[in-house]
Amino acid sequence: MAVRSHLPGYGSFTLFRGAAVRTGIYVGLCLSLTFIAWLVVANRIPALERFARERNIAAAAALAFFGLIPVLRFHAMPVRLLASGAIAWLLLSLCYRVLSFFFSGLTGRYSAFQVFMLGAVVYTIASTICWIGTVVWRMRASHAHPSVHSAPIPPNNHRMT
After folding, report:
1. Which of 77, 87, 93, 132 has its CA 20 to 30 Å from the CA of residue 40?
2. How far apart are CA 91 and CA 2, in angstroms?
3. What gap in Å lies between CA 62 and CA 50, rounded to an integer?
């Protein structure tokens, strides 16, 4: 018998029970915090302007690292991968929209909808590739280890005598 302990009030948040939703929220928060830090360092600390290329590379690498978490966690479950990635990227897009009120140059580059669609397309491609990989992996496994009952099964509409 498994014993599960929950924090008080956890039962009211049934939406957050799914691993894909929780992962999407956590990754979205990490992506948003990374983007906020990148934006603040780039615009509010002029002493680091000479390191702009390194700063941009480090920030893009951090965003890519956090963006890969749903792919690495749900590579065998493409629907959860897509859901988790979409939730994460939605949170980043909402953060981008809020930050565009304070940093006017953001809206000149991309809109929040364009940022969301960029992430949605990337996660859709990743989930499609993972789905194809999973199908190929299962097909190879089924041909490598044929089952004991490999006799052909007749259709339901035929009688066996």
Report:
1. 87
2. 34
3. 20
Nearest to residue 91, comparing CAs of 33, 37, 28, 38? 28
pLDDT in tens, 33-48: 999 999 999 999 989 8
Collapsing DSSP to helix, strand or coil, 152 comes out as coil
Grouping H, G, I as helix, E, B as strand and the rest as coil, residue 69 is helix
- The predicted model scores a pTM of 0.78
Q: 9's torsion region: left (phi>0), alpha (psi -120 to 50) or beta? A: left
Q: Residue 4 corresponds to which tokens in the numbers above?
A: 């599960």
Mean pLDDT of 100-108: 91
Measure the CA–CA gap between 144 and 140, rounded to whole angstroms: 6
Q: Are 96 and 112 in contact (CB under 8 A)?
A: yes
| Residues near 122 by beta carbon (within 8 Å), at least 6 away in sequence | 67, 85
What average pLDDT does the chain have?
A: 87
* Alpha carbons 126 and 118: distance in angstroms, whole number: 12
Q: Identify the CA nearest to 27 among candidates 84, 96, 102.
A: 84
**Buried b or exposed e, range 10-32, using 16+ CB within 10 angstroms:** eeeeeeeeeebeebbbbbbebbb
Q: In 10 A of CB 80, how many CB atoms?
A: 20
